């Protein structure tokens, strides 16, 4: 019997704590869901690490958009890596590409070395690279421990053959973790079809504001991005073999 690990992406301290309470094995900690996830603030990072000993990996991403970064942006990334290390996070999540769609091996390796002893996951910048099989080898060469990928399409369930090939090519050298569109109704199929040992989901659920008063003239929806605790528990039920 073996248990597949479930990583949950969250966008607030409260969502992280809810996902941990639901049984998530690891948290990818982000802010700004509309940007696809950016580096959490120092306040959020220092607060969360003080509240849990669970495995939490902050994303280190200075902005939304593509994954081609200027020198100033790279300097910002370096500073955030050092901040996460100083706060004693066990790992971080990064992703850097060159303009031609290849992995930025040099800068990625520099960040991996800087982050040590933290583990480093290479995120779905991988899904925007030109050649996924070469990119896999390039990322392995940098010292990253894990790749989060949807198989270069929006939903991992639509890329099962590619994900299987990547996992087979990776062997024991790096973890290839399917993510994006992973839910309780397809998680078992994804695992069985690909041989994945870890999977990633946001289990995203919009949560209504708790305000008693709202300003109707503003005509706005004050919902926040949270997690569906029930969905996390359903996914976990499928991860025992």
Protein architecture, described:
With 241 residues, this protein is an alpha/beta fold. The chain has one domain: Alpha-Beta Barrel (TIM Barrel). Strands 3-2-1-8 form a four-stranded parallel beta sheet. Strands 4-5-6-7 form a four-stranded parallel beta sheet, with helices on one face. Strands 9-10 form a two-stranded antiparallel ribbon. Helix 4 links the parallel strand 4 and strand 5. Helix 1 packs parallel to helix 8, helix 3 runs parallel beside helix 4 and helix 4 packs parallel to helix 5. The radius of gyration is 18 Å and the shape is globular. The mean pLDDT is 96.
Q: What is the structure about, briefly put?
A:
By secondary structure, the chain is an alpha/beta fold.
Write the layout of secondary structure elements.
Blueprint: E1 5-10, H1 13-22, E2 26-29, H2 42-49, E3 56-58, H3 71-86, E4 91-94, H4 105-115, E5 119-122, H5 132-142, E6 146-149, H6 160-170, E7 175-178, H7 187-194, E8 198-201, E9 204-207, E10 224-227, H8 229-237
Parallel strand pairs: 1-2, 1-8, 2-3, 4-5, 5-6, 6-7
Antiparallel strand pairs: 9-10
